[in-house]
Every structure is written in structure tokens, then in C-alpha cells.
Design a protein that fits this description.
Structural class of chain A: alpha+beta
Helix content of chain A: 40-55%
Oligomer: homodimer
Distance between the termini of chain A: 18 Å
Radius of gyration of chain A: 15 Å
Largest sheet of chain A: 3 strands, antiparallel
Strand content of chain A: 15-25%
Strand order of the largest sheet of chain A: 1-3-2
Number of strands of chain A: 3
Shape of chain A: elongated
Chain lengths: 92, 92
DNA sequence: GGAACGATTAGATGATTTTCTAAATATCTC
DNA sequence: GAGATATTTAGAAAATCATCTAATCGTTCC
């Protein structure tokens, strides 16, 4: 993890849309993929980028793999931004 | 502008450090560049990415170009994240 | 005007990224 | 176990990106 991976993950519109899709609950890779005009392999790749960034987690249930939002990493981002907005120069 | 450019701009560690450097006031391109072990041309490129993302603005004063933080775009980012954390499915 | 300095732009190169097709893995059902 | 379904992994191609060197632009000062 780290800001590097997180921001990189968020920099792709497909991946941001995936996060949006997961707002109202976990979805399978297939359900997520059906929202996009690209192959399942490509969606799978995006899911793995999001997973490596810690933005989603996966939950295997039988034949399906459910993905769900993981919001804690986003808190780190807002924290980083807040640190940028604070004007104290002794901060990390 | 748009999230695309903003997140992409934030995804590079050099650029995030530049933003950090500008927390306590405007600096010239040269001052910024002296903090990094890369050519001035490369730093200039990073500054232009940040400028196009709306994260910094430039102010030419004579021979020097001063760069300073532009925080409003960061507010849009925190707004987007907040929207992701809200669970209402009728939101944009 | 010309030299000196601060900074950007142009063009090239190697690395990374996005996407695809094809093949592989995992699970369920018969 | 074989076939069907859900998903990922492997490998390749095109696009984008970070970085460099060299050349250019803008300003100041003599």
C-alpha cells in the first residue's frame, strides 16, 4: 500500500466507476464487468489494481468472487490532503 | 480539469512532494527543482502537469516564475471521496 | 544589442499501463 | 470424472509517462 498505489488506482476512470458501483454493496466480478464495454480479463486486471491498493477486498463464495469497498484507505487520502491544507511546516 | 488529470497528477511521488514544498508559500521553479535530483527540464514537466490539473498556479515576476498551491481542486477530491462514502444510491 | 540567467519546449528513449486473445484455475452439477 | 460457468493469469500490442539532452524563450544588466 501507500499513496503511490492508491492515487494510481484512482487515476483510471474505469476503476473509479467500479468503486462507485460498489457503494451500495458487494458485487461479483461478473456483475461489475457487465457494466463495462470491455473484456472480463480487463475488468479483472482493474479489480486487482484496486485490491493491491487496498481500496476493495474480495470474498470468495463458491463459484463467485464478491468484491466490496474498503473505505479506510480513502481516509488516508483525505488525511494526506488535510495535511497539505494545514499550514504548519513541522508536519509529516 | 477533472478527476482524471487530478488523480494522475497526484499519483507521482515527485509531484506530491512538490505540493508539500509549496505548503508554506510560493517558490520559484528553481527553488523547487533544487530539492530534487533530476534535471530542471523534468521538474518543469512535473510543474506543468500539476498546473494543468489545477493543483498549482504560476505567477511570473521578472526573471522568475513563482508557483503556489491551489487548494480548491483538492476540495473536489475530498468531495468525491465523501460521495463514495455516503451510501445513497441516487447520488451523482 | 549581447551575455548571463531562469525556465520551458522539442524530441528521443526506456519503463509502465491498458487492453486484448488465449489458456489456465476453481467450483458446481451431473 | 467431464462439462459448464465464473474468474484469473499469461503474453503481446499500442498508448502513455518520466526522464534526459539540446535547443529555445523571456528577462535583466552591461
Amino acid at each position: 500500500m501507500g499513496f503511490q498505489e492508491t492515487f494510481k488506482a484512482l487515476s483510471d476512470p474505469t476503476r473509479r466507476e467500479i468503486l462507485h458501483l460498489l457503494r451500495d454493496g458487494a458485487k461479483t466480478a461478473g456483475e461489475i464487468g457487465s457494466h463495462f464495454d470491455m473484456t472480463g480479463a480487463t475488468v479483472s486486471h482493474h479489480l486487482s489494481v484496486l485490491r493491491e491498493a487496498g481500496l476493495i477486498s474480495d470474498d470468495r463464495r463458491g463459484k463467485y468472487i464478491y468484491y466490496e469497498l474498503n473505505l479506510s484507505v480513502l481516509d488516508e487520502i483525505t488525511g494526506w490532503i488535510a495535511g497539505l491544507k494545514g499550514d504548519r511546516s513541522d508536519e509529516a
